[in-house]
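Tokens in:
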């Protein structure tokens, strides 16, 4: 049994009076890919953003319960949120490269963390681009604008940028939804490689993608975690009829 990286206990999240997440309890294992599936508006992205406190920026958000990473509650009062987000990186649905060169996009996190050693930064940028399966495509044009890259390359650049600061957990919010099938396949192959070194939680609306890349799958509905199990079980022998109905396309 792999070690538990994240342990969520009776977690509730409210936007003002509206309860967006209801009594979520789940354990996420180290070096695994956990897929979050469910219909639009069911709380998938809200849950994902709860794992690095991205919801904090929304006014009138409050939470109950605990989110433990390595047994530390990330919602404790003494938690350094900047440090938390270094530890728990995030890749968004739409690639969001900065208006900088390819090199400076990846180096950005290192620089804002106060690293000035040029040789170290250069080595780290190369390693991160290699880890994101992008190095071979960009090594001769590191100093051109990131906007010159294709959509799929920009998304892998954003993954490289997240990896540069050495996170332990990588959150991905539908990272391939805006990409063509070829670019999507590259992202999926990359996720498979990255789980050797990172714990990955990915929101996807694509059932086939969840089945292909996830070790575990969590099915959300109306802010509740309906079912969580090995992906193979969720997709072949779910315990609840509502999960089966969603998986087989009867609703959603």
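Residues out:
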């Amino acid at each position: 049994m792999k070690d538990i990286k994240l342990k969520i206990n009776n977690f509730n999240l409210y936007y003002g009076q509206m309860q967006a997440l209801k009594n979520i309890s789940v354990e996420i294992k180290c070096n695994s890919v956990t897929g979050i599936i469910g219909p639009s508006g069911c709380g998938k992205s809200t849950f994902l953003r709860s794992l690095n406190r991205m919801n904090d920026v929304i006014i009138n958000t409050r939470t109950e319960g605990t989110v433990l990473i390595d047994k530390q509650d990330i919602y404790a009062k003494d938690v350094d949120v900047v440090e938390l987000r270094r530890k728990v990186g995030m890749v968004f649905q739409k690639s969001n490269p900065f208006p900088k060169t390819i090199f400076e996009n990846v180096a950005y996190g290192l620089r804002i963390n106060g690293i000035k050693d040029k040789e170290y930064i250069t080595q780290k940028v190369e390693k991160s681009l290699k880890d994101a399966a992008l190095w071979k495509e960009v090594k001769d044009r590191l100093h051109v604008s990131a906007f010159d890259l294709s959509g799929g390359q920009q998304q892998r650049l954003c993954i490289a940028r997240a990896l540069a600061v050495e996170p332990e957990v990588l959150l991905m919010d539908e990272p391939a939804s805006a990409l063509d099938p070829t670019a999507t396949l590259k992202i999926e192959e990359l996720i498979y490689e990255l789980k050797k070194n990172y714990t990955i939680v990915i929101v996807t609306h694509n059932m086939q993608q969840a089945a292909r890349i996830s070790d575990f799958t969590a099915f959300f509905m109306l802010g509740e975690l309906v079912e969580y199990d090995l992906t193979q079980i969720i997709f072949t022998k779910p315990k609840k009829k509502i999960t089966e109905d969603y998986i087989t396309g009867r609703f959603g």
